[in-house]
User: Which sequence fits this backbone?
């Protein structure tokens, strides 16, 4: 059962994992050892994906990349509360969340390589396309969830977005829509307290982001976003509400962005590096690992093999991505329309001729 | 076949298409309880239920964004934007998502949504009830754009839009919603997208128009009947354009006057003129002329008639091209 | 001092005016007889303007018109709490609010006549142009208020919008902006419970619209929108906060739309006519008049002369509007740019020739 | 005069204009603390204070809407949209208010605001960091549109935009932000809006271009130097357009190739072609040719070069018109 952490001057944060000292560990009802380790595997896979991607970027093997280090607990914890038929609407910050649905590593790497192999069929994973423009996928998720409900299906949807996204009109319109339609939707806010260089205090005057929920007539909960079990539990509750026809829930998962916004960003100009170091010491995977060890669930060997497995997945993933044949220029003209206009064929022919193909 | 007003023809299309395909869903501001502020969706809520004719919150981007999600859940949503200028809040969703999502799934998913709206001026309304925003839509990749000019086409193009696997924007000439009557085929009636219509035959000059400018073009042609045989080409679908019909008509007449109600600069008429400059050069016996709205905010209604392309302006342009 | 009305199943509504029976009259500190009568005059002027406009429309003397019957208390009460240097951002529903700033009746009538004489210079009255697209003026008001504050001026701004407007992204972005900038802004929501045919219940799942304020980190208050004194008092408080540098306030003024949305609308298809009749019996001007009479402030003669004055203002107003010379077509090309492009002159010349001018 | 990159020239313009006029205020996402994601606004917050270089909430419509209000309070706000495609949420404010508010006050109030944004492709970025949205802006009444192609013009056109009494949209070719260097006049430097620039002289054909397509046009002209003397006309201001310069160049050469990176249909190139079809008919010795992006979503970056008008495509088009 989740205990509650009092953050001075702020609202309550749900928390399960203790600190090994003053704060005792809690546990989440219904989660078995198998589940705990599956969550661990997910987090390690995401962490490995993220850390390797930064290296791949430095090596010129992928393009600009949005780092999600210390966001793994939010992603893994929430995704684990879903059934396979539930839909996920990721932002660029959750680019690799499809891995938790069996999407190949090479697919996600291909996306960051600007290669068409990175563009998947959402129906294969019930994972929507990565949303690049902030907050604009929130109405999509509301529409999908509402549409499923109208069809009498029991699936729900999760939309991931950041603290900055809550300032956008599309977030507002989508959240309000979902509230009115009682759509089975989880509005999952990754509050990492920064929107590139803009701190939360310049983003909103609200005391907490969860405060926004009441304006949509839906519950808002706050969890420690670096506590994978608290995130899981909050999401599981929200999913239960959604399936019971009680409508959407807003989850504010509070964490901290300890890495640059993306590989192109240099945060030294705007961030307090000491605070970053402090937050790094509290990072989500280490905290969970310590919890598992205290619980006697995780051995050195298992940790090692889990990491090795993930490392291997990345090794073979990048190899597969790099083995993709170069994209054919014909793709420029494909998929824009079900039946492309006649002019496209002529334009492509002309282009091929010029390219000497 | 029965004689219907233009808006009745639209309503007829809805009744037919919702009965035909139960994945079609109508949504928008005031489309349900009130049946739409122009009554285009009248009767749908009673007949098909509140879940298939949905009064939404007042949020155009939310409407279009939710429609994208509805497509993903297997629906074919038809969104009403209450007026032309109130569609602007949805441009973001349109450009960044509606026109791109099929592409994003590498063609694996269809986004068979329709956005329809009353458009155009001349109705003595307050500000921002009079815009002609078709160029914004036509410039956006991944969507189609249709504008009917008759009741029969209003029904047939809307039906085609609803059945199309891709997003289609339909602009309806609100000026003629209730004043124009015409024969409309009963039951299923589909006018294929991408086909222009020769509204009037002629060999001496072509007036190219669409939507509410077609009657203006026809009146001009009629006025000129003693002087010349003027062809009126109703483009009907701006995207994909029936380029063949355009080139054929202008190839025949050698003279082209393009009429557009929207402001001039970078309007859709420019695209028509550009195609002629590229592909009809040798056929043209006179410069192309555009008759358009001016590059100004649509004015207070007491002087809106001076803004709108008039029969007189079109006649003068045709004479100019004939006399060249 | 405002007392509080408990509306069953809802939040509290501030209320000052009693019902002459069980609920006693309150009073507002600092309001003298002079003020009470000035408020009365304002309401009568607005009421007369509105009722005459419906007739003028029927007579074909003005175009489509957005009726504001029973909204007079909200408009007069809030505007009276402002200083002349404070800015007003009206929607179409507050089209005549400029009258309270000395704007000629003929100006507002001209607006509804589609005649350029209806387009005023906002600087003359500190009243922005009538905003037709829903909610889009909220960011303007936020920007103006913030800009005034940046300049060290003490003025504030009021933006008027409806219940439906709260669903729009622009409302959200403007309100959030104002919160962050601590802009001296009053977000005045005319909750008449309808957006054309859409009832509040289909607009939002929030219990009250004032609930939205917390998401912007600003206070939200609810008042009885048919109680001019409660509206005045709530606005005065909000203005005081704004001037004290404490930022925006959201005021939800609850009333009921007893007339069609506009002259073109027929509400019989969607509204409960009995409820309308009931609300009409509680309409704001009658309630205030009764209050003033109970307080012994309003005599029959004064009421009569106030009404006669207003009627005369409308009589001469419509005459003046109708005496405006027809708009010159040259205006089509004017005011779009500070220096119009050369092409405009040629286009106008051609147009004049065709019109035989 | 010093050699600066294009983005340094923009930064220079800011420093100069903010020092010159204390009613100028810069606002946008990440323009303050970070100095902009491309560092166009670097140093402004330190020099002029956080109140004149404001990090706003993440809300493009809010930014532009607030800027309208700031104008009413006497400010001259310069808004940054972080990328081209992220300007779409502000189109509603732009069309319904920014372009109409002066008119609404019957000319009594100025709205001297600027919206600037990096635009265009070729930078190997994720989706929606590559758009060329100029046609949406150019079609909108009441605003002006400028697109520089050199560091000097980037400074001068931005300064002109800031000083202009009307709203001006400035699109900056992000591809050349850091790779293009050029001499830039120090201190105050203003390039009047509405004046095209002959980037290269020639008598045989004209390539009309703007922004990031100007270097492509120049390279094409250079490649063709042995075959023909090709003029390159840099439009610089799309609205108001320097029609005279366009007609003069094409009047001289008789052949026109128009280059635009944006999707083809109803793009700004169509406007240029339409003007030629209307006013240069007798001068044209060959059909006009448009070389444009295609009517598709801007592609994944591995094949973006195939989408962007290339030197080869422009050369081929010029040859075609020369051989006509
Ligand atoms: C509509 C839009 N505006 C601007 C951007 C540029 N941008 C990319 S990420 C970002 C910050 C987002 O912050 P937040 O929502 O907190 O998410 P985080 O990146 O912290 O996960 C911005 C402004 C964008 N992608 N979309
Ligand atoms: C952006 C936009 N969308 C739609 C409309 C059409 N419309 C005019 S009034 C209205 C309802 C507004 O309701 P509310 O905000 O409650 O204000 P009220 O009319 O009740 O005062 C609608 C949908 C509009 N004017 N602007
Ligand atoms: Mg963030
Ligand atoms: Mg209302």
Assistant:
């Amino acid at each position: 059962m989740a205990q509650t952490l009092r953050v001075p001057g702020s609202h309550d944060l749900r928390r399960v994992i203790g600190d090994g000292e003053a704060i005792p560990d809690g546990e989440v009802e219904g989660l078995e050892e198998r589940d705990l380790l599956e969550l661990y595997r997910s987090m390690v896979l995401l962490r490995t994906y993220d850390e390797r991607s930064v290296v791949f970027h430095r090596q010129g093997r992928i393009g600009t990349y949005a780092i999600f280090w210390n966001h793994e607990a939010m992603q893994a914890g929430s995704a684990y509360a879903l059934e396979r038929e539930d839909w996920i609407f990721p932002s660029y910050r959750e680019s690799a969340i499809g891995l938790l649905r069996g999407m190949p590593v090479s697919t996600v790497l291909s996306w960051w390589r600007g290669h068409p192999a990175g563009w998947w069929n959402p129906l294969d994973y019930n994972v929507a396309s990565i949303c690049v423009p902030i907050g604009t996928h929130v109405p999509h998720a509301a529409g999908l969830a509402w549409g499923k409900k109208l069809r009498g299906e029991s699936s729900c949807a999760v939309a991931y977005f950041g603290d900055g996204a809550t300032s956008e009109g599309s977030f507002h319109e989508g959240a309000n829509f979902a509230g009115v339609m009682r759509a089975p939707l989880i509005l999952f806010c990754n509050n990492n307290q920064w929107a590139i260089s803009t701190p939360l205090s310049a983003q909103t005057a609200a005391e907490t982001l969860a405060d926004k929920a009441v304006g949509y007539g839906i519950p808002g909960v706050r969890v420690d976003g670096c506590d994978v079990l608290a995130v899981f539990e909050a999401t599981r509750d929200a999913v239960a509400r959604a399936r019971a026809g009680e409508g959407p829930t807003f989850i504010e998962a509070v964490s901290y962005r300890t890495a640059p916004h993306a590989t192109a960003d240099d945060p030294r100009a705007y961030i307090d590096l000491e605070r970053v170091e402090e937050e790094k010491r509290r990072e989500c995977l280490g905290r969970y690992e310590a919890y598992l060890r205290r619980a006697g669930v995780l051995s050195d060997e298992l940790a090692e093999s889990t990491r090795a497995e993930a490392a291997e997945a990345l090794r073979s993933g990048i190899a597969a991505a790099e083995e993709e044949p170069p994209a054919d220029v014909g793709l420029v003209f494909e998929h824009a329309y079900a039946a492309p206009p006649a002019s496209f064929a002529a334009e492509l022919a002309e282009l091929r001729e010029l390219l000497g193909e | 076949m029965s004689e219907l007003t233009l808006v009745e023809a639209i309503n007829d299309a809805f009744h037919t298409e919702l009965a035909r395909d139960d994945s079609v869903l109508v949504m928008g501001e005031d489309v349900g309880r009130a049946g739409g502020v122009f009554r285009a969706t009248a009767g749908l809520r009673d007949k098909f239920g509140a879940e298939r004719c949905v009064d939404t919150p007042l949020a155009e981007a939310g409407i279009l964004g939710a429609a994208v999600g509805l497509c993903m859940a297997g629906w074919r949503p038809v969104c009403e934007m209450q007026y032309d200028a109130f569609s602007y809040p949805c441009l973001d969703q349109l450009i960044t998502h509606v026109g791109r999502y099929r592409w994003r799934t590498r063609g694996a998913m269809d986004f068979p949504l329709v956005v329809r709206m009353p458009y155009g001026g001349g109705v003595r309304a307050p500000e921002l009830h009079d815009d002609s925003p078709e160029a914004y839509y036509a410039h956006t990749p991944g969507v189609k754009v249709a504008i009917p000019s008759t009741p029969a086409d209003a029904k047939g193009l809307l039906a085609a839009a609803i059945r199309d696997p891709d997003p289609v924007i339909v602009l309806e000439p609100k000026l003629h919603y209730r004043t124009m009557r015409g024969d409309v085929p009963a039951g299923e009636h589909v006018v294929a997208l991408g086909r222009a219509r020769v509204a009037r035959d002629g060999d001496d000059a072509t007036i190219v128009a669409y939507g509410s400018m077609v009657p203006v073009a026809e009146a001009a042609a009629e006025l000129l009947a003693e002087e010349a045989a003027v062809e009126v080409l109703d483009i009907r679908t701006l995207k994909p354009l029936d380029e063949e019909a355009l080139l054929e008509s202008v190839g025949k007449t050698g003279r082209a006057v393009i009429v557009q109600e929207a402001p001039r600069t970078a309007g859709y008429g420019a695209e028509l003129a550009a195609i002629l400059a590229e592909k009809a050069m040798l056929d043209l016996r006179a410069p192309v002329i555009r008759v358009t709205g001016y590059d100004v905010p649509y004015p207070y209604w007491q002087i809106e008639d001076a803004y709108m392309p008039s029969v007189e302006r079109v006649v003068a342009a045709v004479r100019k091209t004939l006399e060249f």
Q: What stands out?
A: Residues A 93, 132-134, 161-165, 190, 192, 194-196, 257, 261; D 29, 58, 82, 86, 89 surround thiamine diphosphate (ligand 1) (CB under 6 Å). Chain B has two domains: 2-184, 197-323. The mean pLDDT of chain B is 98. The longest strand of chain B covers residues 256-263.
